[in-house]
Amino acid sequence: MKLYIARHTSVDVPQGTCYGHTDIPLRNTFNEEAEAVKQKLDGLHFDKVYTSPLSRCTRLASFCGFENAIKEKRIMEINFGEWEMKPFDSIIDPRLQDWFNDFIHVRPTGGESFIDLYGRVTQFLEELKKEETGNVLLFAHGGILVCTQVYTGMTEMSKAFEFVPPYGSVAEFEL
């Protein structure tokens, strides 16, 4: 089975802002960026199409002609809990340094750790594999791409965020 993941286009939040589950706006360059994603998908056939329910993904899915994509909560971005929409350098929380030291296991206050995110993404990917569907397309987030890279053995969990595919990228995986 081939899995394609299209990362949403660039977001309109200040650099250094902690966001994940928050439904944030996209930059005014959306149409140009989305057109580039659409062209990358042109000529490919998909047996199933899923999208994160966050608008930055559903909007891209619709633009690319997949307005009926299945909304799947397990491919939402990581939940940063109380840290959502705060600049990292203004977060006053004793867990912040613990999280920087061990993002894999430490949860942001009220949020989820990387291993939590990986668990829900892995559960979804395992279900996809059992369906034995041909080509599947996901409109998702950087965290989902990183989890899939770990899941497919492309990288180690400890190095997961050393290469996060850019906004508007489309990655192909063999499951």
The string of secondary-structure elements, in order, is: EEHEHEEHHEHE
Helix content: 25-40%
The number of helical runs is: 5
Low-confidence stretches: none
- Note the beta-strand portion: 15-25%
What is the typical, i.e. mean, pLDDT? 96
- Shape category: globular
Number of strands: 7
Largest sheet features: 5 strands, mixed
Oligomer: single chain
Task: Look at the helices and sheets and give the structural class.
Answer: alpha/beta
Strand order of the largest sheet: 4-3-6-1-7
| Distance between the amino and carboxyl termini | 5 Å
**Cα-based radius of gyration, to the nearest Å:** 16 Å
Describe this structure in words.
With 175 residues, the chain is of the alpha/beta class. Helix content is 32%, strand content 15%. The chain has five helices and seven strands. The chain has a five-stranded mixed β-sheet with strand order 4-3-6-1-7, with helices on both faces. Strand 3 (48-51), helix 2 and strand 4 form a beta-alpha-beta unit. The longest helix is centred in the last third of the chain and has 18 residues, at 114-131. The mean pLDDT is 96.
Give a quick summary of the entry.
This protein is an alpha/beta fold.
What are the salient characteristics of this protein?
175 residues; alpha/beta; 5-stranded mixed beta sheet; two-stranded antiparallel ribbon; 7 strands
Please specify the SSE layout and strand pairing:
Layout: E1 2-7, E2 17-18, H1 30-41, E3 48-51, H2 55-63, E4 70-71, E5 86-87, H3 95-101, H4 114-131, E6 135-140, H5 142-151, E7 170-174
Parallel strand pairs: 1-6, 3-4, 3-6
Antiparallel strand pairs: 1-7, 2-5
Helix pairs in contact: 4-5
